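Subject: complex prediction, re-run

Hi both,

The earlier run crashed halfway through, so I resubmitted it with identical inputs.
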Amino acid sequence: MTAEAAPETKEPAAGEEAPPASAAPAKVPALWVAGVVAFVGLAELVLHVGQVSARDPGADYATLAASVRKEQKSDDLVVFAPLWTDPVGRQAFGDLATLDRAAFSDVTRYPRAFEVSRGGARHPDLLGFRVEAEEHAGDLTLRRLVNPAPETIADDLLRHVGAGLEVSRHHASGKDDMCPFTAGGAQAGPWDPSRPAQYYGCPGASVGVIVLVDAGYRPRRCLFAPPFGGSDALRLRFHDVTFGKAIVGHHGLHRVHEQQKTGAPVSTAFGVDAETPDGKIAERELGRVTHREGDGWTGFRVEVPPALVGQKGDLFADVTTAGASRYYCFEATTR
Amino acid sequence: MRDTTRVDHGIGLGIAAAYVAWLYRTARTLGFSRDESFYFDAAGRYAAWFHMVANHQKGATERATIDQFWSTNHEHPSLVKSLFSLSWMIFHEKSKYIADSSQALRLPGMLMGGLALYVTYLFGVRLFSRTAGIAGAAALALMPQVFYHAHLACFDVAAMAMWALCVYAYFCATEKRTIGWALWAGVTYGLLLETKHNAWIMPAVVLPHALYTYRSAGPFKGIQRFPLPVLAMAVLGPLVFVGLWPWLWNDTEARIREYAAFHLNHEYYNMEYFGRNYNGPPSPPSYAPVMIAASVPTVTLVLFALGLTGFFRRLLVERVRDAVRFVRRLGPPAGGYFAQLPESGEVLLFLALMAPIAVFFLPKTPIFGGTKHWFPAYPLLCVFVGHGFDQAVRAFRARFSRLQPGLPEALLGLAVFTAPALETAHSHPFGISAYVPLVGGTRGGATLGFNRQFWGYTTEGLASFFQSTMKPGESVYIHDTTMGAFQALQNEGRIRPDIRGNAWSISDADYAIVHHELHMIESEVNIWTAYDTAHPVYVLEHDGVPFISVYRRRK
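This time it finished cleanly. Structure:
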């Protein structure tokens, strides 16, 4: 098969401009068109040079870290904004960037916060706090923020882990299989929640304080308490808890489990040992909170009977789910 | 329409060579990505088979042998990996001309980048002018995210180059109407099929274009009136595809089905967009346009818009005028209705740049590749950019006619391409995180919640930290970097060879790194729990944006 030669066309010589693609006569654009093009190019150049010439804020972080170190108390929150600056800030602030602060569960407990801001950004969780003072260093701003309505903490259940907490598999029959407290060393890979260095070794589950990623990709320091599934409860018995008016906390699932939308809800029933009218000791449920997939990191509140307020005693939390085990984690305080 | 001359080929090859040289010189400071490590491995296996063939070893073409060497990474076609393999065999293994194994493996990828520029230039010359060709090729070279990917032993820039080559060959075939060009169009389509599955959307380009171009006979006669290039692509394409991929030589139909099913049912990886992590459908329909605006230099997009004005005038404005005249019964304009239609070449350019982007408006199309999956659109987009530049130069020249020839081009070129050139140079070796100044650059991208990196390729940036801090024999959890990539860094002395990489266990390592991406925070908090600290001992930054945090395990 052979093809006929292409029809003869007159083509420009080397280096010659081609006629425009259209058959229509070429129209020369107005000069302002070239001006706009050149302006955009030069404006982009100026913006780029400005952006990449910004001074390294390393020394400024150090200056502000020194200021915070002078003033800070253990119950102050320290945060960095915008959120992507968090690793840089934590590196510069060293031991001031504690796990509690880096993975805080809520801001209501903090009477005061230090916000280290780059480019004027604000931390989304602290917009309700009042700015009390500002200090500037380069592009950074240190804001001392005051919580307009801080809540006083009577007790923090996470602080009971170790000597002040017993963990067991609580059968429906009332029998408890204890989960021994172990300092067996941490175990961590890339995805599933880590096992902390100190943990309660339950069959098929390790209970301990971890940092969990919630549904919003935020780190949360909490007590990892994966329920066994079925009728048995994961029982956490906190000793010598100082009771306030309420048990206030947050709970959630690991973000992957939060997004599965296939699992059963997780319930946590808080209770105490109480004397019955006939003088016996029996368990009394104070309240029950339920977490459903997709809820994210959510708060809860369980009221405490007035007779218990200010008292010390044991508090138990029974974590259950009807379905398969879930990566469930919670934190709670008495207030 | 002008034809290309030897001078044009010289200029085009010169531009391509300069780009390849730039890539080659900067490649050593760019760490290895996850996917490269898989392709390095595949290329090594292919090399063993090529050795068998070269040495006339018995059984090389038997099914068991082929499957032994070619089953690896068969979710992607073999052409590009074969080129990696042959380059490695010729330039590294045999001649020792390239000392680093990785440079030899990456060279074909870089050459593909050069090829894309060469074709862009030729397209610009043919459709518009030499100035347009040069400006178009420059615009493509000076896209930071393309520059990053053009270094790699991966498929995306190769797919871009092959897409452009195939479109160009098809275009020449429709213009010249010779058997030779039609056959070449068919062969290039086969090469494109053998490069990446982007080829599957090519029919959406050539079929409507063939209808448009072959709707009337024009000056052509006989067989020239039939769309031979389309026929050649339909016949030769699959033959070249199967012929160059030994894995398909057996169980051909079943294996093609398997290959297609893999991509049609591809799992969704994670991708951050406006601070939200997407790892499943529906994908946000705004993703491609927003990412193009955020990652392609703004002045390039302005030139693109300028270059498109004539096309849109002929496609839409003239049609509206036709309609108005028809409705008002004014009669047809001079030359009749539909007199001023876009040229065939412009229509082809537009279709070929829109098709790769259009699939990202479908809710089921995953967005995990960031911008790289619509790279095939960019050479065609850049031809319009070149035309836009040409238009601006003509405006300039018309007003300042006494300027020396070439001076308007040079002045406008400086004004227009200095920013993209600096952006591209500055982005290295953090190219995936490169966003344009309009959105605030790298910091702006982080603030807006755009993807910062993937594939764990930035680990080489920790070399000096490792050198100065880690004790001999200490181990590091390497997070998103594969062991293959980490070992390749060590083999070439980029990272201290005594350091023990650990790909799976944070708790067993002395140090742990985390590559910052939104969904990677899971790994970071696991480090916090295991090491009982949230304090990184080192943070690798670019423009103040963290890319990797390094944690030390408490003793």
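The longest helix of chain A spans residues 31-52.

- K.
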